[in-house]
Amino acid sequence: MYAGALLATAARLAWDPSTYTWFRFLCAAQYRVSAAYVLAAGLWLAALVYLAAAAAASRTLCLHIYAGGVACLAVSEVAYGAWMVASLATWWREAPQAELARRAMDLLHDLKPALLAVERYRDLARPLYEMIEEVEREAPNNVVVIVIFGVLGMVLQIAAFVMARRLARRGGGGGGGGGQGRGRGRRGEAALVCAGR
User: Which of 18, 30, 102, 106 gets the most CB atoms within 10 Å of its CB?
Assistant: First the structure.
């Protein structure tokens, strides 16, 4: 699920003008880094899912590689997030485009009364006014959704790492165990795949 969401976002950043035009115009450096990172993270996460599935054949080696891959992904996410926060804070204070963004927000507030005052195009002005109102009202919800899914993704990555390490130690601990051990191994691999997604 997360791999698909990241790849879909990467596609929108590359090909959907409604997504990339304003982002690229206002924050060119952040746009380029985000487009590259989101694509790389999506491909990396998809590869981890297939690696977890391949652990059924050579469990110990694949699980060690999988755990290392999850750890690398988590570190890269923290680094990317920290860089974005720092660079956007600098951008907001110093970049000329940030002043344009502030003026655009002021323009929206000035535009709403003007829309209501246009009698000739009232049938068009009223829906535009309502859309602006909805954007201003609902925009903060995007931050909440991003935070929730970010925390959930981090929890799943920690769980996947811990599960992979435990299964790798169990797999390297020797032969025996019979059918019951193999059953537990299969159940653990299935849980790992779900957590990796």
Answer: 30
| Residue 123 vs residues 28, 108, 115, 131, 144: alpha-carbon distances, Å | 37, 19, 10, 13, 34
Per-residue pLDDT band for 57 (boundaries 50, 70, 90) equals: low
* The predicted structure's pLDDT at residue 98: 86
Within-domain flag for 157 = yes
Instruction: Give the model confidence (pLDDT) of 118-166 as tens digits.
Output: 767 777 777 777 777 777 777 777 778 778 877 887 888 888 888 888 8
159, 169, 111: which is closest to 136 by C-alpha?
111
Quote the crossing angle between the two packed helices 122-171 and 96-117, to the nearest 10°: 140
> Which candidate, 90, 87, 76, 10, places its Cα nearest to that of 43?
10
Given a contact cutoff of 8 angstroms between Cβ atoms, the answer to whether 188 and 167 are in contact is yes
Specify the number of domains making up the chain: 1
Contacts of 191 (CB under 8 A, 6+ apart): 163
**Those residues with Cβ within 8 angstroms of residue 20's Cβ, 6 or more apart along the chain or in another chain:** 12, 13, 14, 31, 35
- Residue 75 lies in domain: 2-94+142-172+182-196
Where is average pLDDT lowest: 53-57, 77-81, 124-128, 158-162? 53-57
Taking 70 as the threshold, does the pLDDT of residue 177 lie above it? no
Q: How many CA atoms lie within 13 A of 25 on its CB side?
A: 9
Assigned domain for 127 exists: no
Q: Say if 122 falls within a structural domain.
A: no
